[in-house]
Amino acid sequence: MELVMKDISKSFKEKKAVDHISLTLNNGIHALLGANGSGKTTLIRMICGLLPSSEGEIYADGVSIKKQYDIFCDMLGYMPQHFGFYPNYTIDEFLNYMAIVKRIPKKDAQIRIDHWIKELNLQEHRRKKMKNLSGGMLKRVGIIQALLNEPKILILDEPTAGLDPKERIVFRNLIASLSKKCLVLLSTHIVSDIETIADDIIVMKQGTVIMHDTCENLLKSMEHKVWNVHVSDQEATQLMNQYIIVKSHQVADGVDLRMVSDVKPNAQAIEVESDLDDLYLYHFNEEGDEA
């Protein structure tokens, strides 16, 4: 599968939420990273055909989503951060309804529903009403409906938001396994979700792609920018007002700080290896609301 975005833009009145983005993605896990307001959700809605682009074209294996949307939909699985459902439907009823919407033959639908309900440990809950499900269960149902048509492109918008650490690990492992068969585009601002599973990371800011590379190569851009230092309480206050602080740990004789800075922030500061948290704060320390 090859997903191609050619110079796409989306404007809302005078604001450009997505600004001339060109990307080519193939099978694997592609993480879309950015703060609220970076344009991630707008881009995802454009790829899914829910928002028409103001400029540019999107193709999936040569299929134009503008001109051949029905064909494209058969290739697509989409899990929004918050998906709609009939609250009085049971899990079974909701998934069968979604299979009808996706035009999946009844026999195939039942086989796939049974498989994924077992795979995601929902057998004992399949007759529960949707309105009575926990957040973790709703997320599991959400990803099942996205997988029912065996998509070639799977788009997940904040799939682990609101989940506890154990549930997030389960989802990460599932996403990793799915990437063997399809192209996965994972949008998140939770960096730990992508650090270990993403084949590459697309960093968005103010509607544009500012970086697109492997995690390893992105972190190379943070060399000589991440520092640890042990200082007094008074010095810590001064540094916190001047620099981006990643971590602060109060200890008996002062404060241990991890900071991001283009220059050495303190004579005693020691340069340390960077991670995605450092990169994220370096680029998104003062970002606003979602676009």
Automatic annotation (TrEMBL):
<protein>
    <submittedName>
        <fullName>ABC transporter ATP-binding protein</fullName>
    </submittedName>
</protein>
<comment type="similarity">
    <text>Belongs to the ABC transporter superfamily.</text>
</comment>
<dbReference type="InterPro" id="IPR003439">
    <property type="entry name" value="ABC_transporter-like_ATP-bd"/>
</dbReference>
<dbReference type="InterPro" id="IPR017871">
    <property type="entry name" value="ABC_transporter-like_CS"/>
</dbReference>
<dbReference type="Pfam" id="PF00005">
    <property type="entry name" value="ABC_tran"/>
</dbReference>
<keyword id="KW-0813">Transport</keyword>
<keyword id="KW-0067">ATP-binding</keyword>
<feature type="domain" description="ABC transporter">
    <location>
        <begin position="3"/>
        <end position="231"/>
    </location>
</feature>
<keyword id="KW-0547">Nucleotide-binding</keyword>
<dbReference type="GO" id="GO:0005524">
    <property type="term" value="F:ATP binding"/>
</dbReference>
<dbReference type="InterPro" id="IPR003593">
    <property type="entry name" value="AAA+_ATPase"/>
</dbReference>
<dbReference type="InterPro" id="IPR027417">
    <property type="entry name" value="P-loop_NTPase"/>
</dbReference>
